[in-house]
Design brief:
Elements (H helix, E strand, L loop, with lengths): L4 H33 L9 H10 L5 E4 L3 H11 L12 E9 L4 E12 L10 E5 L2 E5 L3 E6 L8 H4 L2 E12 L9 H22 L19
Antiparallel strand pairs: 1-2, 2-3, 3-7, 4-5, 5-6, 6-7
């Protein structure tokens, strides 16, 4: 069969168009994946960036994302039905901010799960907070935030009987001279914990939008 040069040109044109479409789809998919995975990314000059820099005492830090938004949300939801009475669920690590050099290693790590709906006891060596209906405690090395997250669908009833819980762990090596955190430092830790938890409650789709308002961090009076 004879193929004219015009037919060849048309065929090549269709092939090129198809390749452009495939490249565009790949680009869109890649972009969507990157945006979807950006659970821990901190933009320059954001409140989160300023807090991490102040808490870690460094201008530069590395970010590690343990799970994408959808993976974390799925694992947190899966942990809910397996809770034992009076016990926390499994906590999933989500984000870590860290700096390490020959002199020191400091980090802030955030994990999320569920906790029994019981009144929090008095902190042994920390400060208690109330933040727009959420309860928080910050100590020398940890911050905890308890939030009501009303999940949609079949997990809704169970989610209303427990707390969605955030755990932030702050590590400083060497510890000498860094163990004492003043009130302003504890307030910063609680604020950062609130902001990071809001990212996860958004990913979970909590119907009551528990952390929608900007954080107003005020410690409760010491009993």
């Amino acid at each position: 069969m004879h193929t004219s040069s015009r037919d060849v040109i048309k065929t090549l044109g269709r092939s090129a168009a198809a390749l452009v479409c495939v490249a565009a789809l790949a680009s869109c998919t890649s972009g969507d994946s990157e945006a979807e995975a950006d659970l821990c990314g901190i933009s320059a000059s954001s409140e989160e960036e300023a807090l991490v820099r102040e808490i870690l005492g460094t201008a530069d830090f590395e970010t590690k994302t343990y799970k994408s938004k959808s993976v974390l949300a799925d694992k947190v939801k899966r942990a809910l039905p397996g809770m034992r009475p009076g016990k926390n669920s499994y906590f999933n690590a989500a984000c870590r901010y860290r700096v390490e050099d020959e002199h020191r290693a400091v980090s802030a790590t955030f994990s999320f799960g569920w906790s029994p709906r019981v009144p929090p006891g008095p902190p042994s060596n920390g400060v208690s907070y109330e933040l727009d209906g959420a309860s928080g405690v910050t100590s020398e090395s940890n911050s905890t935030l308890l939030v009501q997250c009303d999940l949609p669908g079949e997990l809704g009833a169970q989610s209303r009987n427990v707390w969605f819980s955030a755990d932030a762990y702050f590590s400083f090596m060497p510890a000498t001279g860094t163990g004492v955190v003043d009130q302003a430092g504890k307030d910063r830790r609680m604020t950062l914990t609130y902001l990071m938890t809001r990212r996860v409650t958004d990913a979970l789709g909590c119907e009551n939008k528990p952390l929608e308002k900007p954080p107003v961090v005020k410690p409760l009076p010491t009993p």
